[in-house]
UniProtKB/TrEMBL annotation, chains A, B, C, D:
Record SMART domains: Aldolase_II (SM01007)
Domain Class II aldolase/adducin N-terminal, first and last residues per copy: 7-197
Keyword Heme: no
Name of a matching Pfam family: Aldolase_II
Record PANTHER family: FUCULOSE PHOSPHATE ALDOLASE, L-RIBULOSE-5-PHOSPHATE 4-EPIMERASE SGBE
NCBIfam families: PRK08193.1, PRK12348.1
EC number(s) reported in the record: 5.1.3.4
Protein name: L-ribulose-5-phosphate 4-epimerase
Superkingdom as given in the UniProt entry: Bacteria
Cofactor needs: Zn(2+)
Organism listed in the record: Breznakia pachnodae
MF-aspect GO terms: L-ribulose-phosphate 4-epimerase activity
Length: 231, 231, 231, 231
């Protein structure tokens, strides 16, 4: 019944390799079937070259395994926190992609510096705060998710308009309408992280791009007045 | 009748992938048939892997569609402004290539630092000024073109001798005798942007290269006294 | 009798190419059969494309050749010093991989800045001290090994928990349970070296990551309470 | 009669592509047959994908064409100056490889920072002085060669022990026993240029490596006491 979902999630996981976003097994993709409340996610620590459709694990929104012989990704609880709190998203991606991870390790927000960023992310991509000792010692992956949700709430960011975050000293998460859209955003984030690094090195005092230009590009591609692409 | 033109434009668009200048659909190439005043351009938001000859859109110099089922690139109006104002050019390329985009985001001109630059661009590659709120809110793509033309006029730059520009907070445009020449210049610009970044990091006080050396290399490859290649 | 060992070592050497860790012949992998005290190591200066199973050299822990027509890697004495002093390791890798070598040339420890590092290395990856004139003039490769061992002893580092080192003005060594694990760690080290460079450029005052997060990630993957992967 | 020489030079030119040292036609390789005083060199501005054995041009030490329908590389006069002044070399390579070119554009010597450099280059790789207006306006390619030779004489550098140079605001030349050795050195130079950039960014006050270590590594691979490889 969920073979199609599993197959999509397998394919999306393999795209992480194609787009050079992962090394070894350091990444995971999930997708949710909102109607049935079923999530499909990559198994933990399985080589991408050996992963099969039946290895993809199915669970519900509380993390109870529905189907699957293997253990789900150790980051499952972070994914679930996204699905529980961001009601419009359909897919989540986590990677340790090099440039985005560099920003996360530096503990810095990735500010919008150009139209590539603006085409996909409507403002800065936040870097979360440091986690407390008890958060780390506790249900760490769940707490990671909670810190992300807190960041969006406290900064009043709409996750549908800024579909990505940098977890401090860790790496990026992105999301989207479905798992493929989430992978797409992971690619864009990596590209923005690379060019923002270079721009900032060239011009250390560089400020965010003009708000008007951010608006223009984001709204050119999103919302009811979008006119980019074949729509 | 314009099948050959369309085919060339399709091929040139695919070269952007080959030379690693684009991610997803973030780039577009056009070419003009000056005799008939017909421009062929990439459709908007179509995947490179799926693009076919018949998807290439034909229009006139005012942007009226002559043939094509799909919408043209959303950057069409910028391309047209080039063709209307730079009478000797035959092809235009726009990309978000990483290194050139980094300079554009930094808001800095790309100064000539070495003979690679001098072989193709006779002086600095300008970064345009910030656009005004009304320019952004208005016919944005057309205004983008106008700001570029303004830059060349105010700085008294011959577009035939400096076939590229960096649009502030956005990315590069290049042009040339035809669409393949424009792609060629896009590759060179990216390479110059990468090495200039590194040179400037190594030597922050670095000034432009000697004018005599710029002259020598540019004129070794261009104009009536050129002696590079098999001519 | 040691064909399987030789074959493993050949395969592991070829992985250095696959993971883009070497140029020409600048790298070597060895593995030890602890039961018989036999070490298999790459021959010196042989092209990777031409290397065959029978070219892999076998020797004992004192470096006496047991089998093999070719001379062993000139770094053999360094490898042996590892096997003699780190009793739990089964494989050793040396490369001149670009990013790790850059840190070694800079003479700087590679501090843990994020969870990628923490997943594999439980603390800073040390850069060794400069070698003395007599150490360099003497049994240089053996002395290189001795300086590494000294570094681990003086800094009280457990080599099983920090399976890598940067040799000053030279490059990285990594090790592991077997030769494939050692290659795996070489890949991780290179990735950490790249992202640490970028993070430090973005944030020059950046300090080590939180100790609690380092603990959490390292212990999530290692030791009796590990819960990453299918165990 | 010189088919073998031409074939070697063609192959060596193609290696520049394999090792990612060139873009388009920006590079050239030559080799000399010292016995007959015949030099084979790449033709000017010919695409690498289309180059054939018969396109390789043959000339003597004064540049007089002996055989070949095409014009030789415009850098021929620089190559000849090498062959006339460095009597032990058999091959010359010129590229605009990215990292080495970045150092040349920055106008900086590439100092030895690690054993990779020391294994091939016995000391700093010089960046030449700026050329005078009359040198640039005159026989430019010949004068480029003369400035290189001058650099080696004035700094008292043995070109057999430092087989490379950075031409100011231009790019690298390397040489070697034959054309393949010269290509090999071009690859090494590029790698040293990349890691030296990164090391210097990490540690701006970084000085040259220890002289003793430079000696050890260079002499481990070169001269009568060499013990690296299968000799």
């Amino acid at each position: 019944m969920y073979d199609k979902l599993r197959k999509r999630v397998l394919e999306a996981n393999l795209l992480l390799q194609k787009y050079d976003l992962i090394t070894f097994t350091w990444g995971n993709v999930s997708e949710i079937d909102r109607e049935h409340g079923v999530i499909a996610i990559k198994p933990s620590g399985v080589e991408y070259d050996e992963m099969k459709v039946e290895d993809i694990v199915l669970c519900d929104l509380e993390g109870t395994i529905i189907e699957g012989e293997l253990k789900p990704s150790s980051d499952l609880d972070t994914h679930l926190e996204f699905y529980r709190n961001f009601p419009n998203i359909g897919g989540v991606v986590h990677t340790h992609s090099k440039w985005a991870t560099s920003w996360a390790q530096a503990g810095l927000d990735l500010e919008p510096l150009g139209t590539t960023h603006a085409d996909y992310f409507y403002g800065s991509i936040s870097c979360t705060r440091l986690m407390s000792k008890s958060e780390i010692a506790g249900s760490y992956e769940l707490e990671t998710g909670k810190v992300i949700i807190e960041t969006f709430k406290e900064r009043n960011i709409n996750p549908d308009m800024v579909p990505g975050v940098l977890v401090h000293s860790h790496g990026p998460f992105t999301w989207g309408d479905d798992c493929f859209d989430a992978v797409h955003n992971a690619v864009v984030l990596e590209e923005c992280a690379m060019t923002a690094f270079t721009s900032k090195q060239l011009n250390p005092d560089l400020d965010k791009m003009q708000g008007e230009l951010l608006d223009k590009h984001y709204l050119r591609k999103h919302g009811k007045n979008a006119y980019y692409g074949q729509r």
